[in-house]
Design a protein that fits this description.
Elements (H helix, E strand, L loop, with lengths): L6 H12 L1 E6 L4 H6 L2 E3 L1 H10 L4 E5 L2 H10 L4 E3 L8 H4 L3 H8 L6 E5 L4 H4 L4 E3 L4 H6 L7 E4 L2 H11 L4 E2 L12 H10 L4 E4 L5 H4 L4 E2 L2 H10 L4 E5 L5 H7 L4 E4 L19 H10 L8 H17 L2
Helix pairs in contact: 1-14, 3-4, 4-15
Bound molecules: 1,3-dihydroxyacetonephosphate (13P) and iron/sulfur cluster.
InterPro entries: NadA, NadA_sf, Quinolinate_synth_type2
Cofactor: [4Fe-4S] cluster
Function: Catalyzes the condensation of iminoaspartate with dihydroxyacetone phosphate to form quinolinate.
Length: 310
Amino acid sequence: IDPRLDLFAEIERLKRELNAVILAHYYQDPDIQDVADYIGDSLGLSRQAAATDARVIVFAGVHFMAETAKILNPTKQVLLPDLAAGCSLSDNCPSDRFAEFLRAYPGHIVISYINCSAAVKALSDIICTSANAVAIVNQIPKDQPIVFAPDRNLGRYVMAQSGREMVLWPGTCIVHETFSERKLIALKVRHPDAEVIAHPECEPAVLRHADFVGSTTALLKYAGTSDRRAFIVVTEAGILHQMQKAHPDKLFIPAPPEADCACNECPFMRLNTLEKLYLCMRDRTPEVTLDEATRLRALTPIERMLAMSP
Ligand code: 13P
Ligand code: SF4
């Protein structure tokens, strides 16, 4: 790329030329968030993808998110800046192993977190996100056994909130599992007035210190409604950009991972860069594609989620 190119202006131009909408997750680089038409959590992004009348969806997020947009929009082109932007939850729940796992639980309803492949969605009855998981499980009749996959931490959190037992697939998010309870307690001592706000993908030992637990959108909203001035934020650090932008008068402290590393940044989300976003729009590739049989089977549980979501 010519270093003199104004990428922000070029992306705006391409957006008009392609009749494209840019959907971005909160864990994207701040630059990407700033060129997006919509920034949201997985539920908000799915709803936007279902509603858009743009011809091209440029998805600044990870593969399962772009794939969900494609499942909802088979005739639209869905571009993803880097096709390698995966997710540890999705990658560690391959559909063949999941199908085998499910054979041990006949008669169970299968609720899968949206962080999974289209092939796993196709094996599921209902999809959920961190924003609606508790509400969806609460709508399932009490005597109906449930398999919940692939995030065991979200699963445990939902079990605690709903009082339901569920069979859990043993997956975790490599970002949220690195937050350290020990360091979090030390940080709380230094900031006794700060509220701890955390994503439900965190380990139970971390979540038990949280004053509020929710999806990325819920955490952002909570930071606005709470009258506290300081927050320890236990999720991927990209969300701090919108928190700081919306509430410049408040203090947002990223929670520390156990090791001294940038582990509170998702290595998959961060594969997308402003340059790659520009290039994928200029070249109209890489594109997310799906075989129609899988798409149709994955669509039903997503549609159920959208209908059951508060
Ligand atoms: P939400 O933005 O839906 O809370 O999900 C977080 C996440 O890990 C996305 O990969
Ligand atoms: Fe997956 Fe975790 Fe990255 Fe979200 S933060 S995309 S759950 S690896």
